[in-house]
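Render Di-copper centre-containing protein in 3D.
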Amino acid sequence: MRALGTLSFLFLLWSAVAVPVHEPSAGALEVPGTKCSIIDNRREWRDLTTEQRSKYIDAVKCLHKLPPRDKTRAATTRFEEFQATHILLTDRVHLVGHFLPWHRHLGTLYGRALQEECGYDGPTTYWDWTRDDMNLPLLNSPIFDSVTGFGGDGVEGTYTLPSDPTNQTGIFPFPGQQASKIWKGCVQDGPFRDWVVHLGPGRMNTAHCLVRGVNEFMRSAYTVASVENVLGSKTFESFRLIIDRLPGVHGGGHAMVGGEMTNTYSAGADPLFYLHHGGLDRLWWKWQQADPTNRLYAISGPTTQRGRDNVTLDFEIDFPALGPNITVRDTMDSSLYPNCFTYE
Ligand SMILES: *[C@@H]1O[C@H](CO)[C@@H](O)[C@H](O)[C@H]1NC(C)=O
Ligand SMILES: *[C@@H]1O[C@H](CO)[C@@H](O)[C@H](O)[C@H]1NC(C)=O
Ligand SMILES: *[C@@H]1O[C@H](CO)[C@@H](O)[C@H](O)[C@H]1NC(C)=O
């Protein structure tokens, strides 16, 4: 009892003194694993009001005007800082057990930046590909609308991939797809038509337009039946593998948007990266919610691409320049800090 008393006294002292000293922001109250005071009810792009969509786009543009927090790295804006973190960690966070946890937290940090740094007051949004009419071209999706969406396709002949052989690594290996067709050209309509990104392609740092090469390739991965099939996975291991398998429901979305989205490293140049990954995260969330007792904290898969050790809940994941390290456990229950979201 006495030891316990001392411990809780020390804990009180720690919470009273240490936390405010190290975390002067509102984040001081956000102890991982505790209940959230506000829940972000994430909503699909077409379920946002027109005003919310326009505010979301404005916030993305705002993020790309803000300076990076860490000026020692290659990112020239706060938006690029998220892309830069993904580029830096690509080989550590893909085809591994913490692929979904890491991308979940990246999406949370990005959504929070739009809200806290750029005044977006709507829900975090995602892309549910199954809602696009399979009988119509993909470009008919409201996602690609030039007024209430992210703009459409790239224009052929307006962009040439630089020919640096070392840094262009990471283009998804889609069978039979030529790089020149996938990297079609600069997006010239919609809110990002004048967009300049300074990171990519791959690990190169070049100033270039937003490149897309929208195509129907892989749409079969996004029928209601294919997605139901993914959700039917019995174990986290089979769920993880079916999401990550190339080309599958993860790579497929990257391939359909084309351009920079097809580069494993620099895909985050396209704001659609976060809508696509939001869609994947929602699948994971739905899979967890279907049997929370067994699935909420289910995790497996290698800690490194070539390793044999499995990721555990205590495995630490990092987000250089974006936020503190957390553990895989911290990402599992979306209703607890640091997540604080649900899907409608
Ligand atoms: C190639 O990538 C490295 C990091 O891997 C970077 O330091 C270098 O600047 C890149 N080269 C170009 C031409 O972008
Ligand atoms: C890792 O997890 C998989 C799937 O659950 C399992 O088959 C494998 O034996 C585990 N590997 C190790 C080294 O524990
Ligand atoms: C965060 O994680 C990275 C990668 O595991 C590690 O190198 C770094 O030391 C950690 N930072 C802190 C503050 O623990």
